Amino acid sequence: MDITSYLSRKKDSVDKALEKLMPPPKTFPSSVHEAMRYSLFAGGKRVRPILAMAAAEALGAKSAGLLPLAGTLELIHTYSLIHDDLPAMDNDDFRRGRPTCHKVYGEAIAILAGDGLLNMAFEVLSDPRRLESVPANRLIAIIKEISTASGVFGMVGGQVVDMESEGKDIDFPTLEYIHTHKTGALIRASVRVGALYARAGKRHFTALTRYGEMVGLAFQIADDILDITGKQEEIGKDVGSDIKKGKRTFPSFYGLEESRRRAVEVVDKAITALKDFDRKADPLRELAKYIINRGH
Q: 29, exposed or middle or buried, with CB in 10 Å at 0-12, 13-18, 19+?
């Protein structure tokens, strides 16, 4: 299958759904709405919502009804990027090829824009008018999945350990914790949300969970590699920022070539997890390969 075409079509669908979810930029108070939209529509690949849709399709479900749910994953991801970029955290000046939110709107509005996106996600998730096709018990399970992945036992916890580890000679299990929580938790949840939406049985749900865990890890290994080998105009942010901040990464433990080998190995495990799925899971298989071969 042509994964580039698939990603383009799905991204277009997600972007249209996000446009429906977001208030117009001039909605009062306009400063925060403009800042939210600035970061949300900055050209992201929409990997997380697309993974949710592909997981649902792998189980034979139509993914169109999943779009509002999928959109919330992008709202949460974007909030995390705005906050990660703040001076108190990673202190980055560029994201996706343009100045970070706080550089354009100031730190206070950037913080509130992130807060606004996070809370808007749960406003959408709890709105029965937007999610009429999802029974209440399944919707509660989905909300639990997303909130756990976004919180202290997921993304927030990973960010805490990441910040506290800067400049320290951490061991490899600590690095794995950072990767599987800061980045991997929401990717894993995205796949599981698609599975929950499609009413996956226990066997398929377990397999998709394994796939999500491996893809999440592969994604971060690829990011670690790109921080060294990428070009600023392609990755949209400063190259070598991990080294400058004293962060341990896969290449700092294993070198570039071994890190590339391990990324391929992890993707192979993700694809193996889908061995009992038919061709409807091909987008998931191709997405796993795309994640480690992307240039940004």
A: exposed
Q: Alpha-carbon distance 269 to 208, whole Å? A: 12
How far is CA 161 from its chain centroid?
A: 18
Give first-to-last CA distance, the chain, whole Å. 21
Return d(Cα 8, Cα 156) in angstroms, integer: 30
What are the beta bridge partners of residue 94? 99
**Alpha-carbon distance 119 to 270, whole Å?**
32
Distance CA 34, CA 23 (A): 9
| 2 three-state secondary structure | coil
Q: Which CATH architecture has domain 3-293?
A: Orthogonal Bundle (1.10)
Tally the residues of the chain. 296
Domain layout of the chain by residue ranges: 3-293
Query: pLDDT digits over 189-209, tens only?
Result: 999 999 999 999 999 999 999
Against a cut of 0.90, is the pTM above it?
yes
Q: Please say whether the dihedral angle defined by the alpha carbons of residues 160, 49, 187 and 251, taken in this order, is positive or negative.
A: negative
CA 48 to each of CA 45, 190, 219, 262: distance values in angstroms, whole numbers, following the listed order: 9, 6, 11, 22
Q: How far apart are CA 136 and CA 150, in angstroms?
A: 21
The pair of three-digit structure tokens given for residue 150, joined into one six-digit string: 């976004």
Weakly modelled stretches of the chain, pLDDT under 50? none
- Looking at residue 63, what is its pLDDT? 87
